[in-house]
């Protein structure tokens, strides 16, 4: 098992939101990232990820999906374009510095797009879901196209997206982000997922759609405060914070979460996510 983490440097438009990105990355790692574990497991089971898998994970976040693949025996490479803070946490998971926790199988960390190695990748994943904010697939097709030269012909490429709003309880909460961000007239406004979102991205990247599936990924939190931290860690509310302020976003987010609070104080929101398997021609 050889985990490798790669950070791509892409330009980002607009001013940086007034948030503590280090704290947000930690909340993502400790609270939110695990909500997508059913998605990771379903894909890995379907594609029989194991010791012969050489995985390239695009948008690897803090590395949970990579870790799960590595445990199955896969060699993993992670690309994190947008968050050096999340990348640092992925490094802690996959490349521990402590002598008692040696790196797995000679793991290494590089900071540029990987070049084709002797053994090309035979699985590419882009697990960060698209389809809840206008423009949230921008750049993904280019990122996928960049992965094609380092993958074997016929390699499966997995894309993920939000399911239809009527099957995603979190959609009602995400509308808060769009409502508050509207004065900016930014591309970060909420919109419902469309049926062909994933197929359109795959086709723009020159990939061939070859199957899909749906997975239940409920968002469950210990309390409203934990839910707020987890959802804010996604970055989906950053434009709203920039347009208003943290206090206003916290207030309206708590109100939107109230219908999903159960008698014991926990928060539970059933969701369905869709994944598409495309192949490298």
Q: Report the β-strand fraction as a percent range.
A: 15-25%
Count of individual helical segments: 10
Tertiary shape: globular
Major sheet attributes: 8 strands, mixed
Q: What's the total count of β strands?
A: 10
Radius of gyration: 18 Å
Helicity range: 25-40%
Q: Which stretches of 5+ consecutive residues score pLDDT under 50? A: 7-17, 104-111
Secondary-structure element order, N to C: EHHEHEHEEHEHHEEHHHEE
Mean pLDDT: 85
Structural class: alpha/beta
Kindly report the spatial arrangement of strands forming the biggest sheet.
Answer: 4-1-3-2-5-6-10-7
Distance between the termini: 27 Å
Can you give a write-up of this model?
Mean pLDDT is 85; it is low at 7-17 and 104-111. The protein starts with a strand and ends with a strand. It is globular. Helix 1 crosses helix 8, helix 5 (140-147) packs across helix 7 and helix 8 (224-232) crosses helix 10. The chain is α/β, with parallel strands linked by helices and 281 residues long. Strand 5, helix 5 and strand 6 (156-162) form a beta-alpha-beta unit. The protein is built from 10 helices and 10 strands. The strands form 2 sheets. An 8-stranded mixed beta sheet has the order 4-1-3-2-5-6-10-7, with helices on both faces. A two-stranded antiparallel ribbon has the order 8-9.
């Amino acid at each position: 098992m050889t985990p490798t983490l790669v950070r791509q440097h892409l330009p980002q438009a607009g001013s940086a939101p007034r948030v503590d990105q280090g704290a947000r990355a930690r909340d993502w790692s400790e609270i939110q990232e695990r909500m997508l574990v059913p998605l990771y497991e379903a894909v890995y089971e379907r594609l029989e990820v194991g010791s012969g898998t050489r995985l390239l994970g695009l948008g690897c976040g803090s590395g949970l999906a990579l870790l799960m693949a590595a445990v199955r025996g896969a060699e993993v490479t992670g690309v994190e374009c947008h968050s050096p803070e999340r990348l640092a946490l992925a490094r802690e998971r996959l490349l521990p510095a402590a002598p008692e926790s040696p790196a797995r199988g000679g793991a290494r960390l590089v900071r540029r797009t990987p070049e084709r190695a002797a053994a090309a990748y035979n699985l590419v994943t882009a697990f960060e879901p698209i389809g809840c904010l206008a423009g949230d697939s921008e750049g993904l097709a280019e990122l996928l196209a960049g992965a094609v030269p380092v993958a074997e012909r016929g390699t499966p490429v997995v894309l993920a997206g939000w399911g239809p709003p009527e099957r995603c309880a979190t959609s009602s909460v995400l509308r808060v982000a769009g409502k508050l961000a509207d004065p900016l007239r930014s591309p970060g406004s909420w919109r419902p997922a469309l049926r062909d979102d994933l197929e359109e991205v795959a086709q723009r990247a020159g990939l061939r759609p070859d199957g899909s599936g749906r997975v239940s990924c409920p968002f469950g939190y210990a309390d409203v405060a934990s839910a707020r931290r987890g959802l804010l860690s996604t970055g989906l509310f950053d434009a709203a914070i920039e347009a208003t302020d943290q206090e206003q976003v916290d207030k309206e987010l708590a109100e939107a979460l109230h219908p999903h609070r159960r008698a014991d104080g926990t928060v539970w929101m059933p969701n369905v996510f869709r994944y598409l398997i495309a192949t490298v021609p």
